[in-house]
Amino acid sequence: MSEKEDTHQRLKAAVHYTVGRLCQRVAEEHRREFSRQAVAAIAETTFRECDIFAKDLEAFARHAKRTTVSAEDVKLLARRSTALSRHIQNKSEELAQEQKDTRKKNTGKRKSRDTEEESKE
């Protein structure tokens, strides 16, 4: 088996495991059961959708003449699902705010260090 095939199989197994755990959690919360076939079908569908998403994201970045996929590409990908689009927009705003807060914190630390150094002189 080639390295690419091995990676593909490991990813597929990870998705199957994660879907199984999520189904188990949902089943416990709602007193339902998922058959092995249902879990396998959900996992396979999830894996295929992720593969399509990855190819679409690469195409969006390439179209924009970039080598890196951006948050804007992800938002574009989610445009057909209102709920997913809203969720991604909210997460994007949260991350932007966290980055802003981190920069402010680091700037404040630098200023206080500079002030300390000036007072020592």
From TrEMBL:
The keyword Protease does not apply. GO terms for molecular function: chromatin binding; DNA binding; protein heterodimerization activity. Residues 102-112 have a biased composition (Basic residues). GO terms for biological process: DNA repair; replication fork processing; resolution of meiotic recombination intermediates. Residues 85-121 are annotated as: Disordered. It comes from the Eukaryota. SUPFAM superfamilies: Histone-fold (SSF47113). Residues 90-101 have a biased composition (Basic and acidic residues). InterPro entries: CENP-S/Mhf1, Histone-fold. Keywords: DNA damage, DNA repair, DNA-binding. GO terms for cellular component: FANCM-MHF complex. Signal peptide: none annotated. The keyword rRNA processing does not apply. Belongs to the TAF9 family. CENP-S/MHF1 subfamily. This is Centromere protein S.
